[in-house]
Amino acid sequence: MDRDDNIKEQKHPLWNACIQKEIERKPVAERSSDPASQLLLEKASREGIETAWDRYEAQNPQCGFGELGLCCRNCLMGPCRIDPLENGPKKGVCGATSDIIVARNLLRMIAAGAAAHSDHGRDVVEVLYLTSQGKIAGYAIKDEKKLKALATEFGLEVQGKSPEEIARQLAEAILDEFGTRKGYLQFLSRVPQKRRNLWETVGITPRGIDREIVEIMHRTHIGVDNDYVNLMLQGLRASLSDGWGGSMAATELSDVLFGSPQIKTCQSNLGVLKADEVNIILHGHEPLLSEIVSQVATEPELLALAKEVGAKGINCLGMCCTGNEILMRRGLPVAGNFLQQELAIITGAVEAMVVDVQCIMPSLTTVAGCYHTKIISTSAKAKFPAALHIDFHEKGDQALQAARQIVRLAVLNYPNRQQQKVCIPENRMEFMAGFSKEAIAEALGGSLGPLIEVIKSGTIRGIVAIVGCNNPKVKQDFAHTTLAKELIGKDILVVETGCAAIACAKAGLMRPEAAAQAGPGLSALCRQLGIPPVLHMGSCVDISRIMSLAAEAANALGVDISDLPLAGAAPEYMSEKAISIGAYVVASGIFVLLGVVPPILGSQNVTHLLSQGVEKVMGARFAVEPDPIAGAKLISEHIEAKRKVLGI
Ligand code: BF8
After folding, report:
1. How far does the centroid of ligand 1 lie from the alpha carbon of residue 438, in Å?
2. How far apart are CA 69 and CA 66, in angstroms?
3. Helix, strand, or coil (residue 396)
4. Whose CA is nearest to atom 7 of ligand 1?
5. In ligand 1, which atom is closest to the CA atom of 467?
6. Nearest atom of ligand 1 to the alpha carbon of 470
7. DSSP string, 313-326
8. Does residue 291 sit within a domain?
9. CA distance readout (Å), 578 to 177, 255, 598
10. Is residue 52 part of a domain?
11. Most buried one in 330, 587, 621, 640, CB count within 10 A?
């Protein structure tokens, strides 16, 4: 039977219902600092299309109880909320105080974030396992060197074994990490001994990736853990199982399957869409789908079909983190970050937006209903009303077949493009990407030693990771780019992942020419190496690359991670994944600056614990500063203080 016969295109009531009502909109210059986004926001306004910015503005004022973290829905005696005003209730029906409710809510956010990263990691491990047994077409082991290094790290013998045999044993060992009984995760061997001892003493050594997430759900059930400090410690432990577990597995095994990133030149922003080609946007997170779709889009048969329908070619582009995955390894252009997903469709030039999991707005099908774009979901875990679903089971040759079917549908949709609705912005920016830890070491002549030396000498003052999302509460990309510019101006090297990285790529900060905006030390270093002052290190799970780099630097100096002149920042974050990331970065000993207020202010104790108390134990804390210029000052002071203590 022809596979096309199986596709059920559901007609949702919202399908083709373009939003016509008048919406009071903020000026586009207040919504985004990206000129491509501004242009398309104007177009959305003219065409009556609702975007995330409209919906955010319609939500205001947002729920004050929710903003403070004071609403509890964990049992059916509620919902309860604590009223911070004098005469309001101060306890939930069970007796839970603001401390308990705020801590429980935050923990559930960490659990969701850690689960998302780790389930992504699990999917990659499972594909490696199937690949090792020849049970899946379209995938291969691309980086044998990394495969062997990882196998050795996991205590496996590699001598005399085929890559497939090593891959099978490694995949089994990493699958075991999700429910291991040995009491710790194998990747912790990368962490300086001092920090591991600290985690052991405090009781937050992660014991298994799934276990810590499950334990959060247990402890936050009605009537279990009611001590906010004890709760927060479990939050840190679960987040560590993400950063040094699920995320790290996702990164490392994606490198094994698709190749470790190397430095390359790429293109960014919506100007990468082509007026005379079939445009396919790959949006979501896992490289398993995007790698195969971009691979089959080069097959002669599909290219011939594109010619037949009048297109000059097939243009595969990324968006959000799956965009980062394919640009890091294949150099494919990235069309935009989180807040540009709807705008991409509003260009009228996208034949198909193919999605897998995470950060995909359910509004996409509504927006697509006003254009010819097909939204194609591919994961059994993530379906969308009115989207076309083509299941991408990674078994046998189904992934390949599904990818071909997706590309064919996109090609056949090209003649449906309505030329009068097309508006492709001219904004397109070249940038350098592919800065994996290995690629950085290679650029430095084979090891991280020279980087440590320039930090010691003060040529560069320290390293800051700017990561995370867009959030319509913040002018799109403004906080990312302003913070990055301020920091490089102070001779601080910036490394980035996720939507933050896409923001700085679009703004030209990832071009070697951006060295001119850096301070004298960093600028000279960039010129000498031919690199930009802001380095793209990948997707959000690739923050594990930054953690490995920090651990390696600390080990080389014989100190703890918390002794190093490092910081992390999430100026525009919005997701629960970002909360988990922030928690594991702090628990690993790195100061974290947040640009959006987390929902904890309803508890003075939890707020004090995370912004001050935690530093006494972990050697790192959170700070909140929405102004990126003031934020850069805070970070710079932190880095100089660390340098002083280190005596460098
Ligand atoms: O994992 S930065 S909006 S795309 S959550 Fe999502 Fe945030 Fe973007 Fe990547 Ni990360």
Report:
1. 23
2. 5
3. strand
4. 469
5. 2
6. 3
7. -EEEEEEHHHHHHH
8. yes
9. 22, 22, 11
10. no
11. 587
CB 284 within 8 A of CB 123: no
pLDDT tens, position by position, 509-560:
999 999 999 999 999 999 999 999 999 999 999 999 999 999 999 999 999 9
Residue 496 Cα to ligand 1 midpoint, Å, equals: 12
Please tell me the distance between residue 72's alpha carbon and the centre of ligand 1 in angstroms. Answer: 26
Q: For residue 419, how many other CB atoms are within 10 A of its CB?
A: 8
Nearest CA to ligand 1 atom 6: 359
Domain of residue 156, CATH code: 1.20.1270.30
Is 63 contained in some domain?
no
How many Å lie between the centroid of ligand 1 and the Cα of residue 556?
31
Structure tokens at 362: 């359910």
Q: pLDDT tens-digit profile of 78-134? A: 999 999 998 999 999 999 999 999 999 999 999 999 999 999 999 999 999 999 999
369, 443: one domain: no
- Of 328, 334, 341, 358, the residue with max ligand 1 atoms within 8 A of its CB, to mutate for a pocket test, comes to 358
Domain containing 486: what range? 433-646
Distance 548 CA to ligand 1 centre (A): 20
Strand 492-496's sheet: what is its strand order? 534-536, 492-496, 462-466, 566-570, 591-594, 622-624
What is the rounded distance in angstroms from the CA atom of residue 231 to the CA atom of residue 234? Answer: 5
Q: 270 and 246 in one domain?
A: no
Q: Using one digit for the tens of pLDDT, what is the confidence trace for 353-389?
A: 999 999 999 999 999 999 999 999 999 999 999 999 9
Is 272 found in the same domain as 241? Answer: no
Does residue 253 share a domain with residue 269?
no
Task: Return the number of other C-beta atoms located less than 10 Å from residue 482's C-beta.
Answer: 19
Residues with CB under 6 A from ligand 1: 285, 320-321, 338, 359, 468-469, 498-499, 539-540, 575, 577-578
229 and 337 belong to one structural domain: no
Residues 249 and 291 in one domain: no
Longest dimension (CA), the chain: 74
Distance 285 CA to ligand 1 centre (A): 8
User: Within 10 A of 134 (CB to CB), how many other CB atoms are there?
Assistant: 8
CATH number, position 540:
3.40.50.2030
Residue 337 CA, closest ligand 1 atom number: 8
Is the residue at 479 inside a domain?
Answer: yes
Last residue of a domain, one of 239, 258, 277: 258
In ligand 1, the atom with minimum distance to the C-alpha of 577 is 5
Give the Å distance between the CA of 433 and the centre of ligand 1.
17
Contact, 611 vs 623, CB < 8 A?
A: yes
- Choose the final residue of a domain: 234, 258, 282: 258
| Same domain, residue pair 295 and 245 | no
What token pair was written down for 197? 């001892």
- Nearest atom in ligand 1 to 468's CA: 2
Atom of ligand 1 nearest to the CA of 578: 5
Q: How far is the CA of 322 from the centre of ligand 1 (A)?
A: 10
Tens digits of residue pLDDT in 415-451: 999 999 999 999 999 999 999 999 999 999 899 999 9
Per-residue pLDDT for 6 more than 50? no
Instruction: Assess whether 322 and 247 both reside in one domain.
Output: no
Number of domains in the chain: 3
pTM flag (> 0.90): yes
